[in-house]
Structure prediction request, 179 residues.
Amino acid sequence: MKEEIIIAGFGGQGVLSMGKILAYSGLMQGKEVTWMPAYGPEQRGGTANVTVILSDEKISSPILNEFDTAIILNQQSLDKFEKSVKPGGTLIYDPYGITKAPTRTDINVYKINAMDTSIEMNAPKSFNMIILGGLLKVRPIVELDNVLKGLKKTLPERHHHLIPMNETALKKGMEIIEK
Prediction:
């Protein structure tokens, strides 16, 4: 098994941390992993993306031109990365901030209303965990227990009290993603 993923959106949406949690989850599951962030100097508000590769075998290079899965969180990222999803691959997007929906018919396109759901849950910072839950529903590349271990590893100890809320968000994402 080898899964090549891009997560792209604005800084401040949890793009890089989502990738880091996914990478740690893969490590907890005994997979070979790469995590390669890319972001502009703006930090919050600028574009950010991260590529994550999870594999059962050694990974030769972290640099990718095509992806098995793309998680897209803004229009600029959709415009840039939709064409980079391999035929038969998966594109997951949150429609909040997307003005022109994905148009490809040779990939599996899923919509997840994570922004609206995080606001309804009164937990706007759980947005990225809702998205990650949606990913794991359609592409179960790591087990939920390992994601929780990855969360524990990436979150500072002072924020460990937020892990149950993040677990709830992950499960909610699994419920609300739709093709």
Notes: The chain has a mean pLDDT of 91. Strands lie at 2-10, 32-39, 47-55, 67-72, 85-93, 108-111. Residues 2-176 form a domain with the Pyruvate-ferredoxin Oxidoreductase; domain 3 fold (CATH 3.40.920.10).
